[in-house]
Backbone:
């Protein structure tokens, strides 16, 4: 029986993880859950899984949850604020920590789980985007096991099993992309698209922020940065191809000319189940992939002019230093502004570009420096929200 802590349990990854766990009550128990302020969903999860702890960041929401639990005489202990989140992330009684808090907000807690030597199921790609060197050094020194939950990275990892030296044996890793909801639409026609349209992904059911990142393909850029750290590969070895059906999640080309590809349905429970059961396998609850009903799978190159956010992300692999931190911070500010209908879809890339042109910090060597760069980049991006911008990128 493995005790599981889920950081960000009310999001899509957290809910899917609980669904998988519910199918294997003899193998997994829920030790702790966390949320920022979504009390109703967290309360229902506690009723079902009865964890020992629930960490709630927002103080008002924590008080509301305490009242609900007291009414039902449920003994789950509520921890409040960032300190409570860090406590459950590193708790000695937890075996597996699912890092599913969106954005830079999840970095500290994920790092604490690594320091504690946990098996960390990483769905928070920003941890490696903004703190890759520090994070991977901590993994090596602590003995933690880091398993990606993102479908592409999880697929690539499975294709690389048995590969002793990726830098020697691999020619390239291909991360696939669907192209998002605006594939093949001219970029200069997207300035009037709504948040609802941007979040209408053709293949995946995801949260709003990551759905917008998929529409801009920023998510694929962040995934390239993440893959660079996860697999210790030079940037030229990490490439992207469009595969519209999201059936092929990743491919690996070996130096002997062999290709391995990972295929599956578009269901996050597949990669979650693989990471939970690693190195074994368990049922995920996802429907089987019917190979006979597949439409013809085609791979296409990415049109650079269609996805300026992706190009900005790939630029940070060349720039290095603290540029990925600036990229991520500016993107979070811009996406939030778009979802709040304060800016247009096409303004997202402009705000990120302007922020990066304004601020190129040195490479951070410790967490305090990362957080300082992140905060300064956010402040600059906020000022860019009110600056005049070109009509199109």
Residues:
């Amino acid at each position: 029986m493995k005790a599981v802590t889920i950081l960000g349990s009310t999001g899509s990854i957290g809910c899917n993880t609980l669904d998988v766990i519910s199918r294997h009550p003899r193998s997994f128990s829920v030790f702790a859950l966390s949320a920022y302020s979504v009390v109703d969903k967290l309360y229902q999860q506690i009723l079902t899984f009865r964890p020992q702890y629930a960490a709630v960041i927002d103080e008002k929401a924590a008080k509301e949850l305490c009242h609900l639990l007291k009414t039902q005489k449920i003994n789950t202990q509520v921890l409040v604020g960032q300190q409570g989140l860090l406590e459950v992330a590193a708790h000695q009684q937890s075996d597996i920590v699912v890092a599913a808090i969106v954005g830079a907000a999840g970095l500290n807690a994920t790092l604490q789980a690594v320091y504690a030597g946990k098996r960390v199921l990483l769905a928070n790609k920003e941890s490696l985007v903004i703190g890759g060197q520090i994070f991977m050094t901590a993994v090596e020194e602590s003995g933690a096991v880091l398993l990606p939950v993102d479908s592409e990275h999880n697929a690539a990892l499975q294709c690389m099993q048995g590969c002793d030296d990726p830098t020697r044996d691999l020619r390239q890793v291909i991360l696939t992309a669907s192209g998002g909801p605006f594939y093949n639409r001219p970029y200069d026609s997207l300035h009037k698209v709504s948040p609802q349209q941007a979040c209408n992904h053709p293949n995946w059911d995801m949260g709003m922020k990551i759905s917008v990142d998929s529409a801009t393909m920023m998510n694929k850029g962040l995934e390239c940065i993440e893959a660079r750290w996860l697999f210790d590969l030079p940037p030229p070895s990490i490439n992207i191809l469009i595969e519209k059906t999201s059936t092929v999640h990743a491919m690996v080309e070996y130096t002997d000319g062999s290709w391995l590809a990972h295929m599956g349905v578009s269901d996050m429970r597949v990669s979650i189940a693989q990471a939970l059961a690693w190195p074994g396998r368990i049922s995920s609850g996802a429907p089987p992939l019917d190979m006979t009903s597949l439409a013809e799978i085609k791979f296409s190159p990415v049109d650079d002019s269609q996805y300026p956010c992706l190009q900005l992300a790939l630029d940070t692999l060349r720039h290095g230093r603290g540029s990925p931190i600036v990229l991520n911070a500016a993107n979070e500010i811009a996406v939030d502004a778009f979802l709040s209908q304060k800016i247009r879809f096409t303004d997202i890339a402009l705000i990120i570009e302007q922020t990066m042109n304004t601020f190129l910090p040195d490479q951070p060597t410790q967490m305090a420096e990362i957080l300082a760069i992140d905060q300064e980049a956010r402040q600059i991006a906020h000022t860019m929200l009110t600056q005049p911008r070109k009509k199109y990128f």
